[in-house]
Specification:
single chain, about 130 residues, mainly alpha
Length: about 130
């Protein structure tokens, strides 16, 4: 019963953030609300109990994860800055085409990092078992 409630809370938070972002633009509250929505989903899926494996991970692997996270964040930031340069300076897009390309660039810049960081996390978790 509580699983369904937490999943519903997570869905409401994420849909609300998406609608607010499309209507009013980005706000610094989005990061907090996305984290809150993720925690609600994680609690609903009982993934929080799976986090006890973190206590068994060696310190060196934790440092590897932190370094991989910082590196992936830097890659995403660099790709977004590159796409911003291309959209504004090279192609000089305006209007709806610019908006669509910005959203597409953000989504596409996250995917390479998702796979690389995800594979590092998977490798560390498998080594921990």
């Amino acid at each position: 019963m509580f699983q369904a409630i937490f999943k519903c809370i997570g869905a409401i938070i994420l849909i609300g953030v998406g609608i607010y972002w499309l209507k009013f633009g980005y706000s610094s509250w989005h990061i907090f609300l996305l984290l809150l929505g993720y925690l609600a989903y994680s609690t609903g899926d009982r993934r929080m109990k799976k986090l006890t494996i973190v206590k068994q991970i060696p310190f060196r692997s934790i440092l590897l994860l932190i370094f991989a996270f910082v590196l992936s964040f830097a890659i995403v930031f660099g790709l977004i800055q590159l796409s911003n340069y291309l959209i504004n300076d090279i192609f000089q897009l305006t209007g709806m085409a610019k908006t669509i390309m910005i959203y597409l660039a953000i989504i596409l810049s996250v995917y390479p990092v998702k796979f690389t960081f995800g594979s590092i996390v998977y490798k560390v978790m498998e080594d921990g078992k």
